[in-house]
Amino acid sequence: MAQKINEQFQSQWQKPMFSFFDYLPTKYDASKEEWKVRKLIWDFKQGKRSSKVAKLVASQLRKQFGSICDTLTFACIPASSAEANALRYEEFAEEVCRLTGAQNAYKAIKVEGERLAIHETKCGKSITTVNTISFDKEFFNGKRVVLFDDVITRGFSYARFACELEYFGAEVLGGYFLGRTINN
């Protein structure tokens, strides 16, 4: 069973993934252009400039999928809280779907509940509050899904989320990311 799950997880990296910008973390000095990208991503995370980002994403979806955009389902990988998720993705996903004809999965994914999680790092342990995600499982059955997340660093959130949707019967076609973390 564990091997099958690992194989499914690994298969997600073989699917097309597209990032619009390279994102340089703040621990590195940035050029003027890199600062513009940081600002765009930070603004998007705050619920600003979602229309601009929606146009970028919709344009790329139409370029990649053409006339079959209306057969796709567009799903955003949830933010860390219900509030952040709504701020970041509700209007954005609606606009992407309006521009492409894709079906919007926003209401089929809910961020809810809080629990404490203990994370071990090289420096010790930290306790954080995490949320759980619930899905309208029937909604995803048989859907062809394109995922979106604001930033991809290592891809674990993307792969885990894609596997979950495929477990519900969806076919995940790939992922779009506003930024891709790079190390200088």
What can you tell me about this protein's structure?
The protein has 184 residues and is α/β, with parallel strands linked by helices. The protein has one domain (30-181): Rossmann fold, CATH 3.40.50. It is built from six helices and seven strands; from the N terminus they run αβααβαβββαβαβ. It has a five-stranded parallel beta sheet. Strands 4-5 form a two-stranded antiparallel sheet. Helix 6 (156-167) links the parallel strand 6 (144-152) and strand 7. Helix 1 (2-11) crosses helix 6 and helix 3 crosses helix 4 (82-100). It starts with a helix and ends with a strand.
Pick out its properties.
184 residues, alpha/beta, Rossmann fold, 41% helix
SSE layout:
Blueprint: H1 2-11, E1 17-23, H2 32-45, H3 50-65, E2 72-76, H4 82-100, E3 103-104, E4 109-121, E5 124-135, H5 137-140, E6 144-152, H6 156-167, E7 171-181
Parallel strand pairs: 1-7, 2-3, 2-6, 6-7
Antiparallel strand pairs: 4-5
Helix pairs in contact: 1-6, 3-4
Domain count: the total is: 1
Strand order in the sheet with the most strands: 1-7-6-2-3
Distance between the termini: 39 Å
Biggest β-sheet strands, sense, barrel: 5 strands, parallel
β-strand number: 7
Number of helices: 6
The portion of residues forming beta strands comes to 25-35%
CATH topology group: Rossmann fold
Q: Mind telling me which CATH architecture this is?
A: 3-Layer(aba) Sandwich
Classify the secondary structure makeup into a structural class: alpha/beta
What order do the helices and strands follow?
Answer: HEHHEHEEEHEHE
Residue runs with pLDDT of under 50 for 5 or more positions: none
What's the rounded overall pLDDT mean?
87
Give the % helix: 40-55%
Q: What is the highest CATH level, the class?
A: Alpha Beta
Give the overall silhouette. Answer: globular
Radius of gyration: 17 Å
